[in-house]
Amino acid sequence: MYLSHSKTSHYEKCPFSYYLSYNFNLKCSANKGMEYGTINHNTLEDINNLIISGKDVEINRELIHCIVEKYVKEYDFDKDAIESITDNLLYYWDEIGSKIEVLESEYDFRLIKSNHILNGSIDLIYKQDDKIHILDYKTGEIDEEFSETYKNQLYTYALALKDDPKYKDSDFGNLQIYSINKRSTFNIELEEDKLTKRAEEIEKVAERILNNDFKERAYKGGEIPKTCSKCMYKFMCIPKNQI
Ligand code: SF4
Fold this sequence. Notes:
By secondary structure, this protein is of the alpha/beta class. It has two domains: 1-24 and 101-243, Lambda Exonuclease, Chain A; 31-99, no CATH class. The protein is built from nine helices and six strands; from the N terminus they run E-H-H-H-H-H-E-E-E-H-E-E-H-H-H. It has helices spanning 5-13, 15-23, 32-53, 61-72, 79-95, 144-161, 192-210, 226-229, 234-237, and strands spanning 2-3, 101-112, 117-128, 131-138, 172-179, 184-188. Strands 1, 2, 3, 4, 5 and 6 form a six-stranded mixed beta sheet that branches. A hairpin with a 4-residue loop joins strand 5 (172-179) and strand 6. The protein starts with a strand and ends in a 6-residue tail after the last helix. The model has no long low-confidence stretch (mean pLDDT 92). The chain binds iron/sulfur cluster. The site of iron/sulfur cluster has 13 residues, from helix 2, helix 8 and helix 9.
C-alpha cells in the first residue's frame, strides 16, 4: 500500500476521519489558506529551480513579484495580498535563499518497506557547512499542536533520504521548518533513536490500515480536541450543542 506523510499523520490524528477521507473520497475543497500556500510554494519552487539550473538570473523583488503574479492569477487575491506575499518571499531570499547551496527543490522520494511504500516530495534540500539540510516551507500557524506533526514530517523525509542512494552517506544537519509568514526558521535536531521510532510508527500505521482498523476517533467525549474543532466531519461525532 502507498503512504505519504499527510496520510500517516491524518491516520494518527483520527483513524475514523482518515477512513471517511480516503475510503469515501470525502475531501474538503481548497480554502484561502491552501491557495495562499500553493502560491508561496510554487513561487519558491520556481526560484529554487532557477538557482539549480545555474542560469545567471538576478533574483530581486521585480522577479519575485512577476512569479507571484503568474500563480496568483488562478485565485482571487487583492493587490495588498500580492505585495505582502512578495515581501515575505523577498525576505526569505535575502536572509536564507541567497546564502545557501540549493541541491534539490520539490525532491520526490519513494521509500519501499515491507508493508508499505512511502511517497513524498521534499520542499528543499540544501548544503551548508558540508552538511545536508532538509527544509520544509510553511505558510500556516506553527502552534504546539502542529509542531509534533511537523517533526514527524521532517523525520519521514530524513528516513527517505537516508535510504536514497544519492544521499544515504551524507552528513545531515538539522531538520528545518521555515515559516514564510513569521519569517523565521525552526530547527529540529536529527536523532537516530527518534528516526528508528518514526519508522516503526509509520509501519504500525500501515499495518492498522491494512487491517481496516478505523474505529478509533480523536473525540472520546468530554473536551473537544483541536483536531476535531477543525474537522469537516464533526457533525458525525460531536453532539450538536457542543459544535
Ligand atoms: S470530529 Fe474528531 S473524531 Fe470525528 S472524524 Fe473528525 S477528527 Fe475524528
